[in-house]
Amino acid sequence: MKNHTILDIKRPIEADLEKFQVVFESIISSDAPLLNRVLRYMIKNKGKQLRPIFVLLSAQAAHGVVSEKAHIGAALVEILHSATLIHDDVVDHAEHRRHMFSVPALWKSKVSILVGDYLLGAGLKLAVDHEAYSMLKELSLAVEEMSKGELIQLERSRVERYNKEVYFKVIEKKTAALLAAACAIGAHSGEHKDQESVRQALYQYGLNLGMAFQIKDDLFDFGEAEVGKPRGNDLREGKKTLPLILAHELANPHDRRWLEKQARLSRTKGVARKKTIEYVKKSGAIEASNQEMLLYAQKAKDSLHFLEPSDAVNSLILLADYSMARKL
After folding, report:
1. pLDDT tens across 99-150, in order?
2. Which of 167, 190, 210, 317 would you call most buried, defined as having the most Cβ atoms within 10 angstroms of its Cβ?
3. Which helix (H) or strand (E) holds 96?
C-alpha cells in the first residue's frame, strides 16, 4: 500500500486551504502592536493545521463543494483551537510547543491569557457577523466539554486512580469533542436532504478519530519517537494515560504497588520515569493501547459509509490512517 502524505490528502481542497489561510489571517490581524507581534509569531510557527483540513474535507464530503461558509467554519475552529493551546500552555507552564518557545514562555501568563481571550472574542464576532449560529453552537458545546474534561483529569490526577472508564471519558471531552465539532461544522456549511444524518456521520467520524488521536499522543510519551513534547512528560505531570492504566491493570498486586510508587515519584525524579517507561513497555500495555487506538480509527472510517463515495471521503479515510501512522 502506498504511504500517503499530507499533501496527497489535502489535494481535493488545496485551493480552499489557500482561501482559508487568507480569511484566517485577516480575521486575527490587529492594530494593537503587542497583540499583532504575538499573533504573527503564532502564524509563523503554526503546525499542520489539521482541524481546518477536517472542516473543509467534511464540507466537500457532505455537499460536494466547499462554500464560503465552510471557510468561515474552518477559521472559527482554528481560532478556537489556537486560543485553547495558549491557555493550556499557561495552565501547564509549558516552555515549548513543537520545538519552539510557547507564547507564555516569551510573553508571560498575563499577555498570553489576554491574547487567548482576544482570539475567543474574534471567533464569537466572526460567527455572529456571518450568522453561523449552528457552527457556533457546535463549538460552544465542544468548549464546554473540553473544560469539563480538564477539570475531571485534574481532580483524578490528585487522587491517583487508575480508571480506564474515566480516562476514556476525559479524552472524549478534552480531545475528541473539538475534532467532532470540526467535522460537524463541515456538515453545517451547506444544506443536505439528510442533514442530521450527514452531520451525525461526520460527528462520529471526528469523535472516534479524536479518541484514537489522543491514544496516539499517549503512546509518544513512552518513546515511540522523538516528538514535540519530551518523553515522559505526561508522567512528570501525573497524568494517567492509557498505557500506564493498562500496565496497572495487567500487573500482579506486588507489581501494581511498585508501579504506583514509581508513577508518583515520576513527577519529580527522572530515574523513576525511566523505570516506569521500561516497565510499561515490557508489560504488553503498549500493544494493548495500540489495539484500542486502531479500533477507534476503524470506527471513525466506518462512520463515513453513510456518505456518497468521493475524493473528499477518500481523503478523510486516508487522514485517519495518516493520523495513526504519524511521528509527531
Report:
1. 789 999 999 899 999 999 999 999 999 999 999 999 999 999 999 999 999 8
2. 210
3. strand 96-97
Q: How many folded domains does the chain comprise?
A: 1
- Is the residue at 88 inside a domain? yes
* β-strand partners of 318: none
- Do 290 and 219 contact (CB within 8 A), yes or no? yes
CA separation for the pair 161, 169 (Å, rounded): 14
Q: Which domain, by its residues, includes 63?
A: 6-325
Residue 72 lies in a domain: yes
Q: Which three cell numbers stand for residue 230?
A: 519530551
The answer to whether residue 87 is domain-embedded is yes
CA atoms of 95 and 97, how far apart (whole Å):
7
137, burial (CB in 10 Å: exposed 0-12, middle 13-18, buried 19+)? middle
Place of cell 491569557: 113
Task: Flag whether pLDDT at 224 surpasses 60.
Answer: no
Q: What is d(CA 52, CA 226) in angstroms, rounded to the nearest whole number?
A: 25
> Is residue 1 one of the residues assigned to a domain?
no
Enclosing H/E stretch for 82: helix 68-92
Q: What is the 8-class DSSP label of residue 101?
A: E
Residue 31 burial by CB count (10 A; 0-12/13-18/19+): exposed, middle or buried?
Answer: exposed
